[in-house]
Design goal:
The chain is 95% helix and 0% strand. It is an all-alpha fold. The termini are far apart.
Length: 83
């Protein structure tokens, strides 16, 4: 059995570790959300500079159509298979 002193020490260590791990986990979660957004912004700026207004508009339209079709067809096939 653990003595009362060892239990309180263990509880204090566990509490301190949990607080640190929560902060560290929150940091990594936030970083995992922010870094891809910053990467996408940087790539978009480079692409816009390289392609120009006409090329960027064409690329954006193609990406929109492609993503719309994928979303539409993926959900349609999923629901059709469920029936």
């Amino acid at each position: 059995m653990l003595s009362r002193a060892s239990c309180s020490e263990l509880l204090a260590e566990t509490t301190a570790t949990t607080g640190r791990s929560v902060l560290r986990g929150g940091f990594w979660y936030t970083a995992s959300r922010v870094v891809p957004q910053l990467y996408t912004l940087a790539i978009s700026i480079v692409a816009a500079r390289f392609l120009g207004p006409g090329g960027m508009g064409r690329q954006s339209f193609i990406a929109f159509v492609e993503l719309s079709l994928v979303a539409l067809l993926s959900n349609g096939i999923f629901f059709a298979l469920m029936r």
